[in-house]
Specification:
The complex is a heterodimer of chains A (about 280) and B (about 180). Chain A is of the alpha/beta class. Chain A has two domains: about 80 residues, Glutathione S-transferase Yfyf (Class Pi), Chain A, domain 2; about 160 residues, Rossmann fold, CATH 3.40.50.11810. In chain A, strands 4-3-5-6 form a four-stranded parallel beta sheet, with helices on both faces. Chain A has a two-stranded parallel sheet with strand order 1-2. By secondary structure, chain B is mainly alpha-helical. Chain B has ten helices and two strands; from the N terminus they run H-H-H-H-H-H-H-H-H-E-E-H. Chain B has a two-stranded antiparallel ribbon with strand order 1-2. In chain B, strand 1 and strand 2 form a beta hairpin. The radius of gyration of chain B is 20 Å and the shape is globular. The two termini of chain B are about 20 Å apart. Classes of the chains: A alpha/beta (about 280), B mainly alpha (about 180). Chains A and B meet through helix 1, helix 2, helix 7 and helix 9 of A and helix 4, helix 7, helix 8, helix 9 and strand 1 of B.
Chain lengths: ~280, ~180
């Protein structure tokens, strides 16, 4: 995510100070390892443990805005906290970089940061330009929702936290049957055509239901729905034109932040359609 | 190119073969006997709707001992890792985790790694990130770099040599 999906990061850094959250940038992190899981699961575990250990070294909880990274770190924590042998083995490997995983710090995603830690009431207080009558479809992202075994920030079959945040902005989240469908991104590296078809099917279903906006909270999903929307439309023979926003961009707009401070020029979907 | 080629050119193949066989038999022992073929996994499977992946059938085939065949099959690479099967299985079988293990075995046995996985792996092994830091296009087609947008430098491993060393060891370790 930090190597490409800059709009998410820009809007996060813009809105969090409103909500009294201070981000601390730490050097030394690496990939979470989740994209490597098909190749080598031990590598995923090591990379995640490494990142968690760096957070612990600085005595900070990790804020992980990407759903995929959040899953990798949460799963790593679950495995290491429940399997002392694996913890010892991973710590043995981490020793060369003078790192140790203890399992003392938390892992926070955008959705639980906003909903659970900051709270709906606090968000409401900052709304200057309510998003009235805006019909919004939400997309959580598979990795944010499941598997609940390792602890996920939202309910696995009926997640509602983004809806509640949107209601605080006076927007109108819609119910739709395809809400839990995958964005297709995990197949992009080896079966790109199929990945785009998956994206196209979901977007077409959303468009057919007369929704104004799709909102997401994962850079992988956003890349599919926003950056690759036109290509995705071609795979399902549909002309797609759905504005896709990061949740943090919509929050920024509702807080009265200027458009250019939210990275909106980086959204490739037609976000100008809306007069927000 | 396999993960072994990338990290330790010229490892003795006999050792590797032995290890793969060990892992195959370990996987055989670990596959759950509890699956009763309710196919709840397949009914929700994201890849089934599009690519006809049938997780319950894969579990059944593995239980019948067709592990090598599954490792060599392309179908294991159609999983979208949406984790619905793991979430919904009444017997806690988790086909998605079995598929991850099969893919790991396919890579270990020197079978070609499909698609862009090789490039991502090389990038992680050398810099710690899955791709180089990109310039991005705006809607009106202007190119922007991270610092043009006022973003700080990307966090990445400080002592790259130590990082690479630790990671290369894992690439050839047993899972």
């Amino acid at each position: 995510m930090p190597t490409e999906q800059y709009a998410y990061e820009i809007s996060l850094r813009e809105i969090l100070p409103f909500l009294d959250v201070e981000l601390v940038d730490i050097d030394g992190f690496s990939c979470c390892g989740e994209p490597m899981k098909s190749v080598n699961q031990l590598m995923t575990l090591y990379l995640s443990a490494r990142n968690l250990a760096i957070g612990e070294k600085h005595k900070l909880d990790l804020f992980v805005p990407c759903a995929m990274c959040h899953l990798a770190l949460s799963e790593c924590k679950y495995v290491l906290d429940n399997n002392p042998d694996m913890k010892e083995r991973i710590n043995g490997m981490l020793a060369s970089e003078e790192l140790t995983y203890h399992g003392t710090r938390g892992i926070v995603h955008t959705v639980d940061l906003l909903h659970d830690h900051i709270g709906i009431e606090a968000i409401k207080q900052h709304v200057k330009k309510p998003l009235k009558d805006l019909k919004i479809a939400t997309h959580y992202g598979c990795h944010l929702i499941r598997p609940s075994e390792v602890g996920r920030p939202v309910n696995s079959e009926n997640p509602e936290k983004i809806e509640e945040i949107l209601k605080a902005l006076e927007a109108e989240p819609v119910k739709y049957a395809q809400k839990l469908d995958c964005c297709g991104a995990p197949l992009l590296s080896n079966l790109p055509e199929s990945a785009l078809t998956k994206t196209g099917q979901k977007l077409k279903a959303i468009q057919d239901q007369g929704v104004n906006v799709l909102v997401d909270v994962c850079p992988w999903c956003h890349r599919m729905f926003d950056s690759k929307q036109i290509k995705a439309g071609e795979t399902v023979a549909a002309k797609l034109g759905i504005p896709v926003f990061y949740l943090t961009q919509l929050l920024g707009l509702a807080f009265g932040v200027k458009r250019d401070k939210l990275g909106l020029d980086l959204n490739l979907s037609p976000v100008d359609k809306l007069e927000l | 190119m396999s993960i072994v080629d990338l990290t330790s050119m010229g490892e003795p193949q006999s050792e590797l073969r032995k290890e793969i066989n060990e892992r195959l038999s370990k996987l055989r022992d670990e596959i759950s006997d509890y699956c009763f073929q309710c196919a709840k996994c397949t009914s929700g499977c994201e890849a089934h709707k599009l690519l006809e992946l049938e997780p319950h059938k894969i579990v059944a085939l593995l239980k019948r001992g067709l592990i090598d065949e599954m490792v060599n099959s392309d179908v294991i690479w159609t999983c979208m890792s949406c984790f619905k099967c793991k979430e919904r299985c009444p017997q806690r079988v988790a086909p998605v985790d079995i598929l991850f293990s099969l893919k790991n075995l396919a890579v270990l046995s020197g079978k070609q790694i499909p698609g862009k996985y090789t490039a991502m792996l090389q990038s992680v092994l050398s810099t710690g990130l899955i791709q180089d830091i990109q310039s991005v296009a705006t809607r009106d087609n202007k190119t922007k770099k991270r610092d043009d947008l006022g973003l700080p430098a990307v966090s990445k491993p400080v002592d790259v040599a130590k990082f690479q060393m630790a990671l290369s060891k894992i690439a050839v370790e047993k899972v």
